[in-house]
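Quick one: co-fold with C2E.
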Amino acid sequence: MSPLPIDQMKNELVDHTPFPSFFINLQGDLLESNNWSEVYFGYTADDFAQNSLRNSLFASVHEEAWNVILTSEQAIRFNNLQLVMSNGNLIDVSLFTKRCLFNDEQALFVMSIPLDAVHTMGDNYQELIDLRNGIQSSFMTVTLDHEGFIVNGNQHFLKTSHWTPKRVVGKTFWRLFPETPDSEKMAQTIWKTLNNGQIWQGEVEKVTKNGESYWVYLTAIPTIGTKSEDTRFILIEKDITKEKTIQLQLEKIAFIDAQTGLMNVHRLESVITDMIAEGRHFSFVYLSIDKFYTIKDLHDQEVENGLIVEFTKRMKMYFQDSTMARINEHEFVVITPLPEWFIQGFLNYLQQHPIYNDNIAIPLAISGGISRYPEDQSTFLQLMKASLATIATVREAGGNNIASLSRATHKTLNRQAVIEKRLLLALNQQNLQVLYQPQMDLQTGKITTVEALVRWTDEEIGVVSPDELIPVAEETGLINRIGAFMLEKACEQAVAWHHAGIHVKVSINSSVREFRDKNMAKSILETLEKTNCPAQLIQIEITEKFALEAEGETSIINQMRQLEEKGIVFVLDDFGTGYASFRYMQLLPIEILKIDQTFISSLTKSEKTQRLIDGMIQLGKSMNLTVLAEGVETEEQKSLLESYGCDSIQGYYLSKPVEWEEIERLYKAR
Ligand code: C2E
Ligand code: CA
Ligand code: CA
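Sure, here it is.
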């Protein structure tokens, strides 16, 4: 590097350095100095005028060192050099030199810092550096910002996860984990712990860029900044995939859970399949330790292991000869011919025989579900599913209870299982239909938009209404495929209408689960492109429940914004039924409010509803939103809405959902 021309700042530079500083020429003669030499070393300007630097302050400096100072073209630092004070005493300093131009001549800038004038971080600092280097060289590390976006990852991490630095930076923390409910729960626990300022440690499953799984022992550490934006989270990970794979394989081969000695879920499945083949009757009891992850967070690994072992002991004592299995970390199954009242007594037994940690009973709550074979369910998978549904009901009612579902509920569950099976087939054969329901602009009386609604008639199970179909599809993840199917049909139809001079937009319904897929926006845009459909022809309806969940998930919001930028309009469906929040209405790119039909149906019956709807419409307008009312069935409802300034309506008053040809007819009739 060539010397910097700092000539013009000569005086300021020397004057403003807070330690003795000089400009000297390459022969060692003093050109300029500041007052700090007097303060620290006792030399006045006069002293330096009478005696050269070399013969006064630098008299103790070895000839070689002096030559290095004068001749080195590079900046140098002497950590510890002895200089001579004016009273003849020696003083330890750190010395810095740097070549520069002074009055267009080659010169040196020299600064000396007396060591006792500064506090040295020396050893401690070095220790920190060593520690960091040690961690970086033997662990995978990832640093996250306060919102959970990745800011960097070290070489080990990149190698294992197959990410490139460019790609991984800006991805979210959630992207590092598999998209299973268990993993999502785990990631949530880690995230919460970090945000509470605490360290999280444990074994977790992660995924590479390509979605392959690997296991790590994770230590996640929050570093709190002075501002919340400065907060960083550091993930230090040790790859334990090999150990874990061996353990999992062993468990699979041995069909035994290593920790408790109980059979595992694979073995349980074959035992039950055999029992069913033999026609034996039994109760399938699924037991789940409530809030296990909280208990786990409060105690260390040892306590957690002890808890599971002790719990297993009590199960074995109480259920004696029954068949028992461990399903996962905190869930167990007991197969027993014992009656329901006895099974439920297990909770009392647990209370009488608590599990202790440090002489304090760990508060344990158990949620359990009982399903009977053959009365309730008929296969292993259905028994499992029904039990989970039972436990969900138990939890909703407060937990710590073992219950069974009614015969009717089991019937519904069975139907859901059938729907699931048939739906998969229907999707593969593109056997779903789409109906369209028009919306009318109240000012112009024209049809501007149609909502696409799914219809399904299965040859085996008959008509399945959306209200039955959608929840099952959401639970099984098939909603993503329904969504993709509906979008494609909507785009194709919108384009066809467009070419036929029928200028209507198509509005499709979307579930939050679809947007959890990080590629949702991308695949929507791809479908638009594939079908040659301009984004302006498509609207997406999201429910209030969706909005509430999206509010907390940056990646959903970002995807919505990305689509909005391309011209897709978002509609807030079922407005008024959920948890209308101004926050998400500001946060999410919503342009249209769709007032739910329950309000409209009581519109003409109650004055209170009238004021409420009037208020909703004014609220929407004040936020610059378009307001749409759905479920409009009568002229009277339409007129009232019109008088409140509602923008458009949808409902049987105009038309039921109909085939596309019928839309053409309705459009042309207006
Ligand atoms: P939604 O989005 O609120 O759709 C409006 C529902 O009200 C439709 O029922 C429609 O047929 C019905 N409806 C329309 N006008 C009137 C009226 O004037 N009076 C009365 N009483 N009802 C009217 P549908 O088609 O059975 O759909 C039910 C729900 O299923 C929809 O509610 C929507 O949440 C969901 N859904 C339908 N298709 C899809 C889809 O393709 N994807 C997703 N994710 N959800 C869908
Ligand atoms: Ca809708
Ligand atoms: Ca609705």
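If it helps, The radius of gyration is 37 Å.
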